[in-house]
Amino acid sequence: MSKMPLFFVIVVAIIVIAASFRFVQQRREKQENDAAPLLQKRVVVSNKREKVLNDRRSRQQTEIPAGSTLRYDVSFKPEAGGLEMSFRLDGAQYHALTVGDKGVLSYKGSRFVAFKAD
């Protein structure tokens, strides 16, 4: 009988440690983005992706269709050549862009700031 509570304590401890690690990782990334200089590059919008984020199981979706939330990712290719950069945007910023747009991308670290089309 004493083994069952010990198992649950170990599982809870692992969950707490994993959650703490993720929280520290997100906080560190936010601090690095805040400290990064504002960079600007001439780029071309190379790809746009919408991903549905589902918080329901398949049976729940068939019985009660839900309004799903979307995640918007956009990739930019530098005009002068180089590696493609991808950023997560909100809906308004995402819908303002079309693939093939050229302009100036502003970003801080891994955080999208703005895109000004020509």
UniProtKB/TrEMBL annotation:
Annotated Pfam families: DUF2500
Species of provenance: Pseudocitrobacter cyperus
Top-level taxon of the source organism: Bacteria
Keywords on record: Membrane, Transmembrane, Transmembrane helix
Descriptive protein name: DUF2500 domain-containing protein
Phylogenetic classification of the source organism: Bacteria, Pseudomonadati, Pseudomonadota, Gammaproteobacteria, Enterobacterales
Spans through the membrane: 6-24
